[in-house]
Specification:
By secondary structure, this protein is of the alpha/beta class. It has 13 helices and 18 strands. It is 35% helix and 22% strand. Bound molecules: iron/sulfur cluster (SF4).
């Protein structure tokens, strides 16, 4: 059934924009699936002349994101004023944090809905004819990979983080539901599953009373058609020793570990209320590197956290230098309203925090170049992502989409997106690699 716009008797068209993280993208996909099955014509982030309704699924966890999202909303308000859209709806994390203020300041917006009010948004847009049951999500990623959100919310209380206040406590999805979704995704042609949550290591604690991530990984391995399973957003937690056992014996789980550490110096970790020590984090990383020597480790660090001294920062730099992360992102601490750390003494001047971030990224650039150069001559299994000029851009199991290294392969016209190839690396840059297709197995 198609819902028609009474004014022009055409299907009601909805344009969705997603801001922020991959978890938000999955929320948009679920929302789009519901709108689509309710009879609306839905597009995601495509250039468009006109649409009846525009929905912005916002992010709001740090100041920079808030500013970026507000300017996005203002852009759409101007499109509405120019008649390119009839209705503007705003949903997501920014609404969860600042609904009243947004309603007061932005009366041009037709509706503000938090993510847990998606059913009301669908009802209001479809004049009450919401679809029965839980329609399938509408995938927005290239057809060969998809995010699998295994839980929502977070039980931890890191002193700098707003996410628990926005997304609530950790709520895991039942294992059988996730396996069923993975099977459906495989039938859609998905070959790579990327597991996400605020903290994937706490998966299952709420519904099974014990960490269930290792078991979930084993079940997902059995899903036919899925060739790569990638783990994101882990936390320095003892369950990772079990994950290591599953990963090292697996043919499908990528040798890839995304583990945002935020810092490494114990006094800073304790002030951040991270609930773990340098020793635990260091040992987990050492065990992964020792038992899976080619594992790619990704992390993020915060510089300029309240109370961070030059000595703490030197300790962080030494650790980054000695361990050698394959991927590292550094962010300047952002004091967020409502978080404990925003009220802490010894706030570090922005200039110092910025300089430390730049120093860390400069160090990481050299580390990345060094680690990349070791790949020259090697043959890697890679999946083709997209065409770019003379190249077919690909990723190996060591690279996650949108955030990591890419491999530029000269395309002789025979290479196809979504297919796996064996690529011999011919040149290594600071971050990216270049290569050519070869017949032989890695
Ligand atoms: S684990 Fe991550 S999402 Fe949870 S409170 Fe800490 S930083 Fe925030």
């Amino acid at each position: 059934m198609t819902l028609l716009n009474k004014l022009n008797n055409k299907p009601i068209s909805v344009h969705v924009t997603t801001m922020g993280c991959s978890k938000n993208l999955v929320d948009s996909e679920v929302l789009m699936g519901r709108l689509h099955s309710a009879g609306l014509q839905v597009v995601h982030e495509r250039r468009m002349e006109k649409a009846d309704v525009a929905i912005i699924n916002t992010c709001g966890f740090v100041q920079d994101a808030i500013e970026e999202n507000i300017s996005q909303i203002l852009e759409w308000i101007s499109r509405k004023e120019h008649g390119r859209i009839q209705k503007l709806i705003v949903t997501g994390c920014l609404v969860k944090r600042f609904k009243e203020a947004l309603q007061r300041e932005l009366p041009e917006v037709d509706g503000f809905y938090t993510m847990d009010q998606a059913h009301l948004l669908v009802r209001d847009l479809t004049a009450g004819c919401s679809p029965a049951g839980q329609p399938r999500r509408m995938l927005s990623t290239p057809s060969h990979y998809a995010w699998l959100k295994i839980a929502e919310g977070c039980d931890r209380r890191c002193a700098f983080c707003t996410i628990p206040f926005i997304r609530g406590k950790n709520v895991s999805r039942p294992e059988e539901e996730l396996v069923e979704e993975a099977q459906w995704l495989a039938r859609q042609g998905v070959k790579e599953l990327i597991l996400i949550a605020q903290d994937t290591t706490r998966y299952g604690l709420d519904i099974y009373g014990k960490p269930q991530l290792p078991s979930l990984l084993k079940e997902l391995e059995k899903v036919e058609g899925i060739e790569w399973i990638r783990l994101h957003y882990t936390y320095p937690d003892k369950v990772l020793y079990q994950v290591l056992e599953v990963m090292k014996d697996s043919k499908k789980i990528c040798h890839y570990l995304d583990i945002p550490l935020q810092h490494i110096s114990d006094p800073v970790l304790s002030s951040m209320r991270r609930g773990h020590t340098k020793a635990l984090a260091a040992d987990i990383l050492k065990q992964f590197r020792r038992q899976i020597p080619d594992v790619a480790v990704r992390t993020t660090m915060i510089t300029g956290y309240p109370g961070e001294t030059e000595q703490h920062f030197q300790e962080l730099k030494e650790f980054v230098e000695s361990f050698g992360f394959d991927r590292l992102g550094a962010f300047v601490y952002s004091p967020e309203e409502g978080t404990a750390a925003a009220g802490f003494k010894h706030q570090v001047p922005e200039k110092v925090a910025q300089k430390r971030m730049e120093e860390l990224m400069e160090l990481q650039k050299n580390i990345s170049a060094r680690l990349n150069s070791r790949k020259e001559g090697k043959v890697l299994k890679a999946i083709a992502e997209r065409k770019e000029g003379p190249y077919r851009v690909m990723r190996s199991q060591y690279d996650s989409p949108e955030v990591d290294t890419e491999i530029f392969v000269t395309d002789d016209g025979t290479l196809e997106n979504g297919q796996f190839y064996h690529i011999q690396i011919t040149r290594a840059g600071d971050y990216d690699l270049w290569g050519k297709p070869v017949q032989t197995q890695p």
